[in-house]
């Protein structure tokens, strides 16, 4: 009985410490959360689509592509 409890505890701890990969995970919803940027309105991509604009960098090679209606209004001279 004690070995079953220890085995169950090890399995639960193993599942708690598992971190799904961000860009290549099997779960589409988790992948979308990790690939989103700019207040969850943008998407990290190597190149932006025609109806999107580059706003910030997600990492060293991906751009944060955002629909222009979600971008902040720039003010200045």
From TrEMBL:
<dbReference type="GO" id="GO:0005576">
    <property type="term" value="C:extracellular region"/>
</dbReference>
<dbReference type="InterPro" id="IPR050544">
    <property type="entry name" value="Beta-defensin"/>
</dbReference>
<dbReference type="GO" id="GO:0050829">
    <property type="term" value="P:defense response to Gram-negative bacterium"/>
</dbReference>
<protein>
    <recommendedName>
        <fullName>Beta-defensin</fullName>
    </recommendedName>
</protein>
<keyword id="KW-0929">Antimicrobial</keyword>
<keyword id="KW-0044">Antibiotic</keyword>
<keyword id="KW-1015">Disulfide bond</keyword>
<keyword id="KW-0964">Secreted</keyword>
<dbReference type="GO" id="GO:0045087">
    <property type="term" value="P:innate immune response"/>
</dbReference>
<keyword id="KW-0732">Signal</keyword>
<dbReference type="InterPro" id="IPR025933">
    <property type="entry name" value="Beta_defensin_dom"/>
</dbReference>
<feature type="domain" description="Beta-defensin">
    <location>
        <begin position="36"/>
        <end position="65"/>
    </location>
</feature>
<feature type="signal peptide">
    <location>
        <begin position="1"/>
        <end position="24"/>
    </location>
</feature>
<comment type="function">
    <text>Has antibacterial activity.</text>
</comment>
<keyword id="KW-0211">Defensin</keyword>
<dbReference type="Pfam" id="PF13841">
    <property type="entry name" value="Defensin_beta_2"/>
</dbReference>
<comment type="similarity">
    <text>Belongs to the beta-defensin family.</text>
</comment>
């Amino acid at each position: 009985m004690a070995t079953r409890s220890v085995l169950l505890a090890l399995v639960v701890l193993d599942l708690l410490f598992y971190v799904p990969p961000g860009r290549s995970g099997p779960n589409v919803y988790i992948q979308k959360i990790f690939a989103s940027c700019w207040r969850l309105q943008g998407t990290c991509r190597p190149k932006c689509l025609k109806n999107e604009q580059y706003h910030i960098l997600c990492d060293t090679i991906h751009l944060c592509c955002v629909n222009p209606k979600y971008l902040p209004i720039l003010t200045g001279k």
